[in-house]
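re: ur msg from earlier - yeah i can do the zinc ion complex, just paste it... oh wait u already did. ok heres what im feeding in:
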Amino acid sequence: MLIIIISISIIILASALIYFKQKLKANHRNKIIQNPFLDSWEKILDKNVQLYRMMPDDLKKQLHNDIKIFLDEKTFEGCGGLEITDEIRVTIACEACMLLLNRKNTDFPNLNSVLVYPRPYVGNSYSHVGGGQYTVKPTARAGESWTGGDVVLAWDCVKHGAINGEDGQNVVLHEFAHQLDQEDGYADGVPILQDKSRYGKWAEILGKEYNLLRDRVEHNKKTLMDAYGATNPAEFFAVATETFFEKPSQMKRKEPELYEELKDYYKLDPVAWIK
Ligand SMILES: [Zn+2]
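and the outut:
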């Protein structure tokens, strides 16, 4: 009996702690949202981020609050001699937070730090060659997303991707889509969906489109999405996210089921942003 009473007390205490922690976080966020969105930040976004310029004012307003919270909660670290500036922080936060708009159930909970290099950096790529053996090859990288809490980005690739919002290449959207995918601990191209009933349709449509892309890449046929999306399901979701935001009309026309599925997931319709 005593054990049951102690167990129940521990559960009640733990629940109360979680509740107060969440309440403190919500109160703090409410304070952060009250801070003004600086004119200098808006100028940076107008200059650097084409997708920001295109989106309607109500979404921009929502984005401003998400950016303020992102900048308050996530750490930026300059690597390779890069000094972190407001331009770097605000440009990256803006594009990352585009993936959160209209979806208040997530905020990149696993992410602690954004590490930024001035230009592509070298990392080791591991290829399985069978029998538990791997080859290691140094490769240049524009970005990476780690389940352990870091996103790594090359600033000149970030800036180039943000300035041109119509070429389907955007390293920030790509790496933060990986963060969403990795939120449940698995990089498998399946992020956390709103309810259980949606997983079947997600698997059916994204699985079908992934196989179609692989087939086209294998046969050297032209593809709307970057061929890198054919690497595996996780890369397919990240590349599909870039295409959804940057080539929405083409995706809606050529891959309507995929467009609708991503529209349903991101709760956004980027086709409507095109004037
Ligand atoms: Zn990737």
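cool cool. The chain has eleven helices and six strands. ping me if u need the other ligands too
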